[in-house]
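Exam review. A common question shows you a sequence with its structure tokens and asks you to describe the fold in words. Practice with the pair below. Do the first one on your own.
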Amino acid sequence: MRAILARCTLASLLFLVDQTAMATGVETASTQAIHTGERLTYDISWLNVLAGTAVMEVLPDGAGSRARLVTTAQSRPAISKFFPVDNRVESEFDLSAQLPQHMVFRRREGKNKEDIEYTFNHREGTVTAVRHGASETLPIPAGTQDLISCLYYVRNQLPMTPGASLMLNVYHDKRNRQVQVRVENIETVEGLWGKAETAQVVVIMPFKGLFINKGDIRVWFTTDERRIPVRMKAKVIIGSIVADLVDGFSSKTSP
């Protein structure tokens, strides 16, 4: 039983970071919180046990209006002995339009290996998905985001004031999924990097996906112009998974 729970938890490491927000916005107040050069590192714990590490980076991709959003998640050495996790998601993101162009998900969990690729054509309103060697083109609503870009979109669009909200659409696993994101309150959060005023944002999850959540997900964004997610938390079958920022709060970024 313990091994099964650990498997579900570790398989969720990446999705805690990626599914904290998913993108047609309402009540938006656009800003530019995202800049190339940002690198955020998180310790991920379950039942107060350090289980893994996740890193979120914004890298240049050779075009001034685009960036590569890269998120990786790896299990700790002690955990890897019985269930290794080494996941990587990379999304090409148009900074001007705030839309994903192409996403590759390299999943390595235990003995399971899978590569998923999405190519977005927003002008035609379609996405082409390649999985297990099969290709399929499906319709998507305007403003659709992927598993990575959704978090950055929310950082740019959601006003960090209580009551502000967004209705978002993300494409994943052959489905368009709508999620509501809402600011609940303002509170001070303390970490290895110090203290910061944050907006506690609840992500209302109307479904159970690859993330084995048992309720809504909460994210704490700083209320300054950077809107850094310093903490993420979600309930699972037993206990909660928590991702706490441990490095990158003072990262130098370039506009």
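Now try the second one, then compare your answer with the model answer below.
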Amino acid sequence: MAAAGHGGDMIDETVTEIADMQTHSSSVVAVKAAEALRSLTDETYPTVEEYLIAVEQNSDALRRANRSHASLQTTQREIVRTLESADLGSVDEAKAKTEEVIEDVVARVQAAKERAAERAVDYLDDGATVLTHDYSSTVLEAFERAVDDGATLEVYCTEARPRYLGRKMVRTLAKMDGIDAHLLVDGAAGEVLPACDQVVVGMDCIVDDRLYNRVGTYPIAATAADMGVPIRVVGGEDKVVDGAFAFENEFRPASEVMLEPADGFVVENPAYDATPTRLLDAAITDVTVHEF
């Protein structure tokens, strides 16, 4: 439930954007959600208690927009928890503390993404052929850093159906000097994998022995493992979580798969799948490289 006024409008828009997957990268989602909460500091509240209630309610709405994004869940809970535990003597103090914690969260998410991308560059050799799936701002930054360092790469991007997020990825890559970009349907990954040196994808999160990422990752990883092609995932260390985080898959509208009525059958449209980490070679984060 968003607060009334301009701040509430911004949060409502961000909730819709997250729910509709208009923003694809999980780290970008976390930053946008944190920035949306900042809009509450423009509103008027009679007491600290009412302000904190508004923060908690709006944070809950943002979290519910996508329960599967580990970064979104952890950063929003951190903001609320920090405010609730602070010694706040006035609404102005509460707003100032909100600005402070949001700035810290955003800076940390962005820095983690940059460090993970920088670490991943060590695995992107000049002349390498890489397959990637979906859209990851961290993977994208790693490619950009690699070509800025003088590497040339051939990159195959799967469409990542049914939302076609891979199309956004390949359009962005095609604008980079040093990258020869290709687009292919998800089911054709096995056709080009023998020519690939590795698979590089982002990650929504790793919980215990499962990588949760955009649907289609698991079959690519399984095929790559069968062919002996290394698969590496890249993302912030905060996405590597233990069993305390309960991943909830999202089942999206059938209309994303087909516009015609489903007569006599059910259209299934899961947003994510679970890849056993035993199929992965490594998870590259801002802190370390987890080898499997």
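Model answer, second protein: Residues 75 and 105 are 7 Å apart (CA to CA). The longest strand covers residues 153-158. Full marks require stating both points clearly.
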